[in-house]
Amino acid sequence: MAAVGMKIGALAGRSGLPVKTLRYYEDLGLLPAIGRSEGGYRLFGEESLRRLEFIRRLKSLGLTLDDIQECLAVHDAGELPCGDIQRQLQRQIDLVDERLRELRLFRKELQSLLQNWQSDPAPNTAVICPNLNV
Amino acid sequence: MAAVGMKIGALAGRSGLPVKTLRYYEDLGLLPAIGRSEGGYRLFGEESLRRLEFIRRLKSLGLTLDDIQECLAVHDAGELPCGDIQRQLQRQIDLVDERLRELRLFRKELQSLLQNWQSDPAPNTAVICPNLNV
DNA sequence: TTAGAGTCTCCCCACGGGTGGAGAGTCAAG
DNA sequence: CTTGACTCTCCACCCGTGGGGAGACTCTAA
Fold first, then answer.
1. Residue A89's closest chain B neighbor by CA?
2. What is the mean pLDDT of residues A47-64?
3. Is B72–A123 a contact, with Cβ atoms under 8 angstroms apart?
4. CATH classification (class only), A8-113
5. CATH of B1-60, one of 2.40.160.20, 1.10.1060.10, 1.10.1660.10, 3.30.428.10
């Protein structure tokens, strides 16, 4: 009558994730199984569902599985991972800001090129595209 | 006394690109050799340098090698690729704009999460991170 | 003629997060 | 006991743009 655990298909059904993905997470150490059946089937506890929700949420916030692994390690050590997550999220914002700067600059370059673009200029045998001058 | 062509190392030296990259471009069909030596060495013409400048420029504008291939095909057919390049660059701007929208939205989400973040909240056994509520 | 530099093809590796399939073993219901 | 669904491990592949190296061959200058 003890809860012996879910097999991987049951966890897939309840979490909405593909079986392959769950195996992948377990291989990475993100999702420890509570054990194996006699035949070698992975058995998962109820807390796996919470864990998968956590992983999904952090993935949606742009963290890599490696980042998430670190947060879960803190949790598994019995501490609250909130501080670590906060740092990761701040780093994420910094990365986004940098990317935004790059993209805005890049857009300016593209825009200025198209500004005086001539679709059908006089051919020039010395270059491939006269508008780009190369 | 005919110009029999450069070997790949000479082209690498003059273009500043690694030999490996030139072979890769030739395999893709981006950079046709004018032939092979008796021993099987690739031989390139002078126009290869112009071609590589063109490729480099379009790469720096965010086009993929596939996109560039299309432009070069137009050029090789004897037409000016300017119209095609213009379309590619406009598409590039559209992609950048979409990406900018996504990133701005994403930044808002991250920022609002950190707004009321508590680094060290009361532990809650039902969730892994009380701030995220998962 | 010979040494050494250059080049050839072919194959594996990188990144991140998985997906697909083969072949074999396991589990539960009828 | 059988059958069909489930699961196991292991290997390969995807995206793009090359990099690294092995083993064999070629070219050129002295």
1. B110
2. 98
3. no
4. mainly alpha
5. 1.10.1660.10
